[in-house]
Amino acid sequence: MDLSVIIPVKKNDETIVACLKAVCASTLTNFEVVIILDGWESLDYFQAWEKDVRVRIIPFPKSGPAVCRNYGVKISNGTWISFVDSDVLIEGNTLAVALHSLSENGEDGLIGSYDNTPSAPSFVSKFRNILHHHHHQRNHHKAGVFWGAFSIIRKKAFEDVGGFDENFDLPSIEDVELGIRLANRGYVIRIDADIQVKHLKNWTFYNWMRTDIFLRAKPWAVLMYRHGNQAGNHLNTDSLEKTSALFTLLTLGLLLCGFTWTWLWALVPVTILIFILTQLSFYRLASRKFSFLPSVLVLHHIYFIFALTGFFLGVFSFKKDI
């Protein structure tokens, strides 16, 4: 068998219905789908696929996506493994195009990109998903990365590095950490930003804040201490993003200090302008996707505030442990 598609599904995640329909509509013929149900009590959602010989539905104790993905790989039959998140829709030719690309370039894997037309209607969802799309597009062909939402990897390479770190019991940066270990072993995984998938996640302000501070930036800071440049020059932590974070911090400092020294507020437009210039490619995209760019600018600054907050929490926790 050429390919095993592994999909971990958190309890009662209804998006799996659309995700599984999209996967099963693939033009690829020789593949299997392994659904790992993370803590589910009922299998009613999956009755429609009981007769599909390609699909295996595996009930599993609540364990988190890292454990579920590792178990899915363990029981899989494919030479290649594709990880697909349950809130992602692939196109009919996505799997075939990805495998063809890998056979042409001889690399060990690839990751795709979110598209720029997310399904969730809220402003926060649209902003967060399009920003993620932008990061992938800007880093087209970058190596040394991994991504759990949509990726394909040689099963041998995955097993050689020990799979996902199961200490990540919540969706976090287990994919980033895996990418670093793969690169350290000499395996080449690249971003193919032309292979795009649709994200169904509906972001609220609260789950955005919680995810970016505690499940991404904080553990990422620990990775940066342990792995240096490999974790610190990684998509949304490269030098351009660090510069933007610096000017976010300057802008926030000027706004706060301006309550004491009001003349400092005159400098705020300068730091905001420099911030926009460092992120000019994103704002070109945003101008086509959003009708009111000032709101995007506010959310973009909030994004960096969350990242900085998580970073400082991660630095503190790391130093506390050593």
UniProtKB/TrEMBL annotation:
It comes from the Bacteria. The chain crosses the membrane at residues 245-278, 290-316. Keywords: Membrane, Transferase, Transmembrane, Transmembrane helix. SUPFAM superfamilies: Nucleotide-diphospho-sugar transferases (SSF53448). InterPro entries: Glyco_trans_2-like, Glycosyltransf_2, Nucleotide-diphossugar_trans. Residues 4-161 form the Glycosyltransferase 2-like domain. Gene3D superfamilies: Spore Coat Polysaccharide Biosynthesis Protein SpsA, Chain A. One of its GO terms (molecular function) is transferase activity. This is Glycosyltransferase, catalytic subunit of cellulose synthase and poly-beta-1,6-N-acetylglucosamine synthase. It comes from Algoriphagus aquimarinus. The lineage of its organism: Bacteria, Pseudomonadati, Bacteroidota, Cytophagia, Cytophagales.
